Amino acid sequence: MDREARTEALLQIYTTYRRFMIGSSVVIFVSALYFMMHTTYSGVIAVASLVPTLFFEWKQTVLYLRFNDDWTYRRLVKGQFFILVATFLTLFSLITLFLTGQIHPDVLMWAMVIGAPPSVLLPLWMDRKLLKLDPEHVTSNMLAKANREKLKRRLDGIND
Q: Rounded to an integer, what distance in angstroms lies between the CA atom of residue 38 and that of residue 45?
């Protein structure tokens, strides 16, 4: 499958994801309004709002796994998803511990400062490795650029 076909398949997931996020955002907003007076619940709702992103990333990972049968390629794609899930669980655990008073706010801040760069930079490094393994691989930057172009064309069509 060439890069254009892969990009179109991934953009289809983005379109579905956008609709899903709008619906889940409404539910999360209503829940946040209901639990606004309870700080514990509002923090948990804020973290739970990341669950739709996990679903989207899982769907995207399954699609990436269909693109190439190479063992190394598949291992790196699964590794990217594992890093995302580990980051989500760590964030959820830290916020839960903070809201229950088990850790000091400084510990939470330092955990975020130390943990954020690797959780952002490691997937970018893995994307470069995947591009070396498969020249037709669609990196996250390429996908974001294609998504912006698609939205721009759509908005230009509305303005005309």
A: 11
Write the burial class of residue 61 (CB in 10 Å: 0-12 exposed, 13-18 middle, 19+ buried): middle
Cα 127 to Cα 81, 105, 111, 130, 135, distances in angstroms: 12, 34, 25, 5, 11
77-124: pLDDT as tens digits: 999 999 989 988 888 888 878 877 888 889 888 988 998 898 889 989
Q: Against a cut of 0.70, is the pTM above it?
A: yes
DSSP state of 102: S
Spatial distance between the Cα atoms of 74 and 149, rounded to a whole number of angstroms: 28
Query: Which amino acid is located at 7 in the chain?
Result: T
SS3 110: helix
Instruction: For the chain, count helices (H), then strands (E).
Output: 6, 0
What is the tens place of the pLDDT at every residue in 4-36? Answer: 898 899 888 888 887 787 777 777 777 777 776
Instruction: Please give the structure tokens belonging to residue 82.
Output: 């594992």
Task: Quote the CA–CA distance of 55 and 147 in Å, as a whole number.
Answer: 19
